[in-house]
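#structure-requests
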Amino acid sequence: MKIFMIKIKKIIMPPLAFFFIFSAALISLSPYEAGAVSQPFFSAGRVKYKGGGDWYNDPEVLPNMLGEFEKRAGVKCYVKEVVVTPDQPKIFELPFLYLTGHGNLKLETADIENLRKYLLNGGFLYVDDDYGLDESFRREVKKLFPEYELKKVPDGHPIFDCFYKFAEGLPKIHEHDAKAPEAFAIFHENRIVLLYTYESNISDGWADPKTHNDPPEVRETAFKMGVNILYYSLISNQAELAGGNSAPDGERTTGEVNAK
């Protein structure tokens, strides 16, 4: 049973309207209907995982990012961090999950079964390597999706221009090993259901200015990429994003989408 997927030929709609539709569908189709949320707010959950990694670091990043998303995209947000474990029914109340850390990640059988159901039926998971998560994440994602390969997201993918335009693909926020930033994804039915950013650390740029002492322009770049990620997670459930007429740098698009 899918949380949400509508096949349409062509539609132009403000992002808030997308979310009202998505929210209603998620509430009515969730396999855990009794505990579903009823407010038409976009909300995001931080994944508390096992294995010893610091899943909890920089607790301000999600509230900060959700505040920026509400301001820039016009989508009403629940601007607080909701902590969930991957085996909880509560994840079906949330259209977006976020996972980060420096250390080890471990998914147990119940985590995998619940998270797979969530992602294959309309949910979205964003994983941001905060330096040190890569090895364990790649190990666990093979358990989560043994039938799919974690593929590199091409620079021309709609996630890089669905709201703000990133002509060169994923930006780099923190140096780490001074390698090029890379975005990887699990694709299901031509849609990203799991996005993984490596050697970029986008979400560190969402932290309070004093946390990492990032200059304003770095934080602005991180917020812009964050808006794209959140926006894509909403409208990719509506239909496949249009491939043409990208917005100029720093400007929003029309929200036009097309289905095959």
